[in-house]
Each structure stands twice: as structure tokens, then as C-alpha cells.
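Hey, can you fold this one?
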Amino acid sequence: MNDEKKLKKALLEQEGLQAGSLPDQQRKEIEMILEQELKRVRRMRWVTVTLWLLWASLYVVFGVVGMKSRRIESEWAAILGFVWIALLPMAIASSISLYVRWRAANQRELRMRLTLLEEQLNRLAGKS
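Sure. Predicted structure:
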């Protein structure tokens, strides 16, 4: 949330500036915030993929072991079953969180790019 506040502050400060006068420091700060957000999305993607792969591998293990032996020791079956059941909501929640974070990062990046484009257009219009 702190990064989002910094981004909002930087964009609001820009609105009060003259056309084409966005300081390099603010531009770098905005780009740094966006890069941090993209890193979070990448980490979340790895977590999500890992959770889904674990869930799928346990599903396959249950299927193969269950088909071959028809009898699984109750301790291991209970532990693996609990882990398998617990992984599903975690994977689903992680997928939803990834989607929300990805959309937010894309929207922030789009806003920044539009702001920089507007700045360039204003600078070009001032030169004519």
C-alpha cells in the first residue's frame, strides 16, 4: 500500500507542474514502484504455479498408488489427503490474488505510460 501511496503522490504532484517539466527523480520513482509491482507479480506467479503443481502431483500419486495397491497405510493416506485438500483452496486463492495483482500492475503501468505520453505531447505542442 505504501508504494501505491507514493505512486498517487507522484502523479498528483505532476498535475501541478508545468507541461513537460516532470523531474527525472519523480519519473525514476514511478518506474521503480512499477518495477517492484512487477516483481511481486512474478513471485506470485511462481507461488501459484508451484501450488497447482503440488496439488496435481498429489492427485496423480493418489491415483497411481490407489490403483496399484488398493490399500494405503492409513497414516500416510490421512496426511497426504489432508495436504491435498488443503492445497486446493490455497491454489485457488493464490490464482485469484495473482489475477488481481496482475490487473492492478497493468493499470498502474498504463496510467504511467499515458502520463509520460501526455507530457511528451505537451512538450511537442509547446515547441510548435
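The helical segments are 2-15, 24-69, 74-127. Let me know if you want another pass with a different chain boundary.
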